[in-house]
């Protein structure tokens, strides 16, 4: 009888762990959790850095920050699991994303000016990585 109760309790515990899960993974791609939102934002920023990496002059024909970057930052800002101490950093990232559009829309837009803003964003993301 004790073995059956023990087996039943272990089985019940395994079922609960299976149904509830262990929480989001650092490798998550689900933008609804903080890891997924952060990973998406990091991926979009890397894409932007690649776009601005070549030495050809910027001709102003494309908006360098795609909507996905702003969306990923927005998901991160609204995430309920984001530690309170990182919320101001997410706000900084959002402000820098807006600054990219301001630079893009200015008559003095250049790859160098856009890269400077992107590097500011990258520095914030690098600081956040261990705390996210």
Features:
Four Helix Bundle (Hemerythrin (Met), subunit A); 132 residues; 5 helices; 0% strand; mainly alpha
List strands and helices in order, with pairings.
Layout: H1 2-20, H2 34-51, H3 67-78, H4 87-105, H5 111-128
Helix pairs in contact: 2-3, 2-5, 3-4, 4-5
Give a summary of the structure in a few sentences:
It contains five helices and no strands. It has 132 residues and is mainly α.
Molecular structure report:
- The protein has a single domain, classed as Four Helix Bundle (Hemerythrin (Met), subunit A).
- α2 packs antiparallel against α3 (67-78), α2 packs antiparallel against α5 and α3 (67-78) runs antiparallel to α4 (87-105).
- By secondary structure, the chain is mostly helical.
- It has 5 helices and no strands.
State the CATH class. Mainly Alpha
Q: Name the overall outline.
A: elongated
Total individual domains: 1
Give the termini separation.
47 Å
Under the CATH scheme, the architecture is Up-down Bundle
The CATH topology: Four Helix Bundle (Hemerythrin (Met), subunit A)
The chain-level mean pLDDT equals 81
Return Rg in Å.
Answer: 21 Å
Share of helix, binned: 55-70%
* SSE order, one letter for each helix or strand: HHHHH
Give the structural class.
Answer: mainly alpha
Question: How many alpha or pi helices?
Answer: 5
Specify the biggest β-sheet. none
- Content of β-strand: under 5%
According to DSSP, the number of beta strands is: 0
Unreliable spans: none
């Amino acid at each position: 009888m004790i073995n059956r109760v023990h087996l039943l309790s272990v089985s019940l515990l395994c079922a609960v762990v299976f149904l509830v899960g262990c929480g989001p993974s650092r490798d998550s791609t689900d933008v609804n959790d903080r890891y997924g939102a952060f990973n998406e934002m990091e991926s979009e920023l890397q894409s932007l850095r690649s776009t601005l990496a070549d030495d050809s002059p910027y001709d102003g024909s494309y908006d360098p920050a795609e909507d996905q970057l702003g969306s990923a930052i927005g998901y991160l800002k609204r995430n309920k699991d984001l530690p309170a101490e990182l919320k101001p950093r997410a706000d900084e990232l959002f402000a820098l994303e807006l600054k990219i559009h301001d630079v893009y829309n200015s008559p003095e837009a250049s790859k160098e000016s856009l890269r400077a803003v992107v590097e500011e964003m990258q520095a914030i993301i690098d600081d956040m990585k261990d705390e996210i």
